[in-house]
Amino acid sequence: MNEDFRTEIALVKKDITQLNKVIDKLDTAIEKISEVATSLNRMIAVQESRVDTQETALGQNVEIIHERITQHREEVQLEIDKSHKKIMDELKCLRADQQEHHKQMNERLNKLEQWRWTIIGGALVLGFLASHLPWKEIF
């Protein structure tokens, strides 16, 4: 019986030794997992910081873009207004020139019509006189 106890004690010691090795390995694994978790926490903090920085920069860029769009819209509207005013002034000038040209052509046409009627009247008078003259007596 003594031997059975010794064998069992030896087996229990061997089991305890093996358990101690497993526990040591588990302790090492837990330490490594803790280190990885700590490292991951640091990396997450760094990434969150980068994301915050980029969000801030993006917000500033969006504001700059909005300002540029507004400024460009104002500049374009100003140029459109200038062009519109210039076109309208040119149209007014063209209309005035057209009216003056129309007036001149109308006056010329009236003068031509007066000459035509004067010539027609003169031809009628000459025709009348020619028809009432005694041509046989003259020649």
Key terms for this structure?
139 residues; mainly alpha; 2 helices; rod-shaped
Structural shape: rod-shaped
Number of helices: 2
* Rg measurement, Å: 58 Å
Count of strand segments: 0
Output mean pLDDT.
Answer: 92
Secondary-structure-derived class: mainly alpha
- Parts with pLDDT < 50 across at least 5 consecutive residues: none
Largest sheet: none
Q: H/E element string?
A: HH
State the distance separating the first and last CA atoms.
192 Å
Helix content: over 70%
Strand residue content: under 5%
Q: What does this protein look like?
A:
97% of the residues lie in helices and 0% in strands. With 139 residues, the protein is mainly α. It has a domain of 93 residues. The model has no long low-confidence stretch (mean pLDDT 92).
Question: Could you give a short description of this structure?
Answer:
The protein has 139 residues and is an all-alpha fold. It has helices at 2-132, 135-138.
